[in-house]
Write a structure and sequence with these properties.
alpha/beta; 10-stranded mixed β-sheet; two-stranded antiparallel ribbon; globular; disordered C terminus
Length: 363
């Protein structure tokens, strides 16, 4: 990758390629005009195929004929809300063998998943098929984590996770959910142990579900870290070439235009970049969600901020609704300026040193 130029990425449902009559006459020209090089097909969401493997193979070949690199993206565990359409309804239900996460109060968290043998078996089978089709990278998006957004201690507090915690750390045997939260203060042994249990769940999922020869990617939510089961350093130990989308949030004008928006976005992105240690393996979270919440003008402005942070892989995203024309037109109009900004903005020095949080979290 040439880190002085921009590399645009975009994901969409495989069904669009096969069934949308305007896909090749209108949508493909828009992507080419922007400079999208890699497209990511949404074949597998919440443990179920959204199309047949044969359809995925056919769509992949059609896109490759158009000159795109084609990889795969999936929604593995869910994040407790609607990650696809942007309405008030929940996301599609999980397979019956999947179990929801349990929060610290003992409540079931809808559209979330606790990693266990059934989950790993499900995804391993699906990813083996992806590999047979010819995909070499699989991005886990929205979401692969064990906690919800926020600064407090997160994780799955189900009986199985608690039993694993007690077994691995017998000194805490019998500690209640409330005690873990109360005693898990920053720097405490309880907190480090609980975070390790949660991070090990995600690392195990990646190790055991990823076929040999495939490279996984993970979206790291805004300010996401070990509190939420996301251990960037640990994932890199398991997969040195792993891909990461840095957490930015601010997907709508209401949050994006607040005074603290830019420092909050930049702090999270730079925090993650420092741990990733490679611009080549880092991707932006350039998202409007629900579609239209972030105006085309602010969508482009967000790209400017991302370039300023050192990002050159610009990953455009809009749930499972294809970006409206105005967004593509806005990026095309700013394309020369953005390329100049990428070429003239110095890249950050990335040595793996964490960046401390120095201000309050901001959505």
């Amino acid at each position: 990758m040439n880190c002085t130029t921009l590399n645009f990425h975009y994901d969409f449902l495989t069904s669009l390629v096969l069934n949308d009559p305007e896909f090749f006459t209108k949508k493909v020209p828009f992507m080419k005009a922007v400079g999208v090089r890699t497209v990511w097909l949404d074949n597998y969401i919440y443990g179920e195929w959204q199309n047949t493997p044969e359809e995925a193979s056919r769509a992949k070949a059609m896109l490759e004929d158009e000159g795109f690199e084609v990889q795969a993206i999936c929604v593995p565990l869910g994040h407790g809300g609607n990650a696809l359409m942007g309405g008030d309804e929940d996301d599609p239900s999980l397979p019956p063998e999947f179990r929801n996460r349990i929060d610290v109060y003992g409540n079931r968290m809808g559209t979330t998943t606790c990693v266990d043998d059934a989950v790993i078996k499900n995804y391993r089978k699906a990813f083996e098929i992806h590999k047979e089709i010819g995909f070499t990278q699989i991005f886990h998006d929205d979401d692969l984590r064990m906690g919800s957004w926020g600064p407090h201690l997160q994780g799955c507090y189900c009986d199985r996770c608690l039993a694993r915690f007690y077994q691995q750390y017998p000194q805490f045997d019998g500690m209640s959910r409330g005690d873990i939260l109360r005693l898990g203060t920053p720097g405490s042994e309880v907190r480090d142990a609980w975070e390790t249990i949660q991070c090990d769940s995600i690392r195990r999922f990646l190790r055991e579900s990823t076929p040999e020869g495939m490279t996984p990617g993970i979206m790291v939510m805004h300010n996401g870290d070990r509190r939420h089961g996301i251990d960037i350093t640990g994932i890199k130990e398991d997969f040195p070439n792993a891909l990461f989308r840095v957490g930015e949030s601010h997907f709508g004008d209401a949050g994006f235009t607040q005074p603290m928006a830019r420092p909050a976005l930049e702090q999270s992105a730079r925090k993650h970049l420092a741990l990733i240690g490679s611009v080549e393996n880092a991707f932006s979270e350039t998202t409007t969600y629900p579609v239209g919440a972030l105006s085309p003008e602010n969508f482009v402005e967000k790209i400017r901020w991302e370039i300023g942070c050192g990002l050159r892989n610009i990953f455009l995203m809009s749930g499972n609704i294809f970006l409206p024309d105005a967004y593509w037109e806005a990026i095309v109009a700013a394309r020369d300026e953005l390329e100049h900004l990428a070429a003239s903005t110095p890249l950050p020095v990335l040595d793996g040193t964490p960046i401390a949080e120095d201000f309050v979290w901001h959505e």
